[in-house]
Design a protein that fits this description.
Helix content of chain B: 55-70%
Distance between the termini of chain B: 79 Å
Structural class of chain A: mainly alpha
Low-confidence stretches of chain B: 1-25
Number of strands of chain A: 0
Largest sheet of chain B: none
Radius of gyration of chain A: 23 Å
Number of domains of chain A: 2
Structural class of chain B: mainly alpha
Strand content of chain A: under 5%
Strand content of chain B: under 5%
Oligomer: heterodimer
Largest interface: A-B, 28 and 21 residues
Helix content of chain A: over 70%
Shape of chain A: elongated
Shape of chain B: rod-shaped
Number of helices of chain A: 7
Mean pLDDT of chain B: 71
Radius of gyration of chain B: 23 Å
């Protein structure tokens, strides 16, 4: 288990990166709206280039940091990684979100390369105005909100593995309690 | 004396990661919310995979059509 100071530092980094990820995803919405609603070439081009920068320099690093610190927090505290259902679901949803984000970021990089061309053809513009931007953005925000709710409310429910661990801890605690009077008598 | 507080008494924002309070869940039975939530997540995962497969097939079909 982590010492309290390290645990607090890990918690601070985890909260900051998770909230930062969600905030950056929300800040992304107006850019997606600009890309999908505008037929003005310079507007679409600039919005795609800004989206690519925000994605690669803010959202992707924060997402990986949130995942990594989440793993550290789970493994370094009594919550564990597979002991409580809310932790299992949070992990699964975060892993899925990071996977889809990485995949989307790859395609966004290709779109940014197209947007950097001096002139855009009609098909280039069609490719840039992909409705997938909105699907990924809104889907990501919903997943992050669900994970946030799970992490705040921590609904009860232990997995079989968690239950076994609890039993082991109870047995160990009982043994310690029984041993203590014997030691004090001697 | 060891006082075991319930989750309701602790409140939703209480930090319980370092306490014994998480041990109040007594049995390994799967709660109802896990079943409902698991079903929704599984359905979304299947839908996601199906959409991805459809998109790949569509791209392949368009590619074949355009030579």
């Amino acid at each position: 288990m982590m010492p309290p100071r390290v645990r607090k530092l890990a918690l601070a980094v985890h909260l900051t990166s998770s909230i930062g990820w969600a905030g950056a995803a929300v800040a992304y919405v107006p850019l997606v709206v600009a890309v999908l609603s505008s037929d003005d070439q310079p507007v679409v081009r600039e919005a795609i280039l800004i989206m690519n920068s925000i994605d690669w320099f803010v959202i992707v690093p924060l997402a990986y940091l949130a995942l990594a610190t989440g793993l550290v927090m789970s493994l370094g505290t009594p919550w564990g990684l597979f002991r409580h259902w809310w932790v299992v679901f949070s992990l699964l949803l975060t892993l899925a979100a990071v996977f889809v984000l990485t995949e989307y970021s790859m395609s966004l990089r290709a779109m940014a390369a197209v947007a950097s061309k001096p002139t855009l053809s009609h098909s280039d513009l069609g490719m840039l105005k992909d409705p997938g931007h909105a699907v990924h953005n809104l889907g990501g925000i919903v997943v992050l909100l669900v994970v946030a709710v799970l992490n705040i409310y921590k609904p009860q429910g232990v997995t079989r593995h968690g239950w076994r661990k609890q039993q082991e801890r109870r047995v160990a605690a009982t043994r310690r309690r029984k041993r203590r009077p014997a030691l004090s008598q001697s | 004396m060891l006082v075991m507080k319930t989750d309701r008494e602790l409140g939703p924002t209480a930090d319980r990661s370092n306490s014994e309070d998480q041990d109040i869940t007594p049995s390994p039975g799967t709660p109802q919310w896990v079943k409902v939530f698991g079903a929704i997540v599984a359905a979304l995962a299947v839908a996601f995979v199906l959409v991805r497969i459809t998109m790949v097939l569509l791209r392949f079909a368009i590619g074949v059509q355009h030579g």
